[in-house]
Amino acid sequence: MDRMEIAREYWGADVPDWIRALVVACDAPGASQNRVAKRLGYTGGVVSQLLRKAYPGNLDRIEDRVRAIYMGGQIACPALGEIGSAACLDWRDRSVALGSVSPMAVRMFRACRACPRNRAVAEEDAA
């Protein structure tokens, strides 16, 4: 059974667009479920659970990552202007901790932590 059939079996006829994008990414030439999962920051098992609608955790963060990495698009970044959604995600990931003292890293650390797109900071502040 191929991945899209699996997704349809578990999600029904209305497979979410981000799950379809996940399937397309896994089925791309040279790709694999494990490679896609690694790029998302998860394991192949998590991707398998997502296709089977069996992931027990919150889907919002994963959906956000799939959209940013595999569905593309441009983001209006308050600090940099128009940037790709994958670049936005990379800066957000780096904003978890200040790991460099370069002026750009400090600027983006501050900008990302104040940005409403950055759910990780919002969740951290709520805890």
Task: Explain the overall architecture.
The protein is mainly alpha-helical and 127 residues long. It folds into 2 domains: 3-70, no CATH class; 74-126, no CATH class. It contains 8 helices and 2 strands, in the order H-H-H-H-H-E-E-H-H-H. A two-stranded antiparallel sheet has the order 1-2. A hairpin with a 3-residue loop joins strand 1 and strand 2 (81-84). Helix 2 crosses helix 3 and helix 3 packs across helix 4 (44-51). The chain is elongated and about 50 Å long. The mean pLDDT is 88. This is Transcriptional regulator. InterPro entries: Lambda_DNA-bd_dom_sf.
What is the molecular shape?
A: elongated
Measured as a percent range, the helix fraction is 55-70%
Q: What is the string of SSEs from the N terminus onward?
A: HHHHHEEHHH
* Biggest sheet features: 2 strands, antiparallel
DSSP E strands, number: 2
Number of helices: 8
Overall tally of structural domains? 2
First and last CA, distance: 42 Å
Strand order of the biggest β-sheet: 1-2
Quote the beta fraction: 5-15%
The low-confidence parts are: none
The value of Rg in angstroms is: 16 Å
| Main structural class | mainly alpha
Overall mean confidence score, pLDDT = 88
Attribute tags:
mainly alpha; two-stranded antiparallel ribbon; 6% strand; Transcriptional regulator; elongated; 8 helices; Lambda_DNA-bd_dom_sf; single chain; 127 residues; 2 strands; 2 domains
Describe how the helices and strands are arranged.
Blueprint: H1 3-11, H2 17-27, H3 33-40, H4 44-51, H5 60-70, E1 74-77, E2 81-84, H6 85-94, H7 103-114, H8 119-126
Antiparallel strand pairs: 1-2
Helix pairs in contact: 2-3, 2-5, 3-4, 5-6
InterPro entries: Lambda_DNA-bd_dom_sf
Protein name: Transcriptional regulator
Organism: Sedimentitalea xiamensis
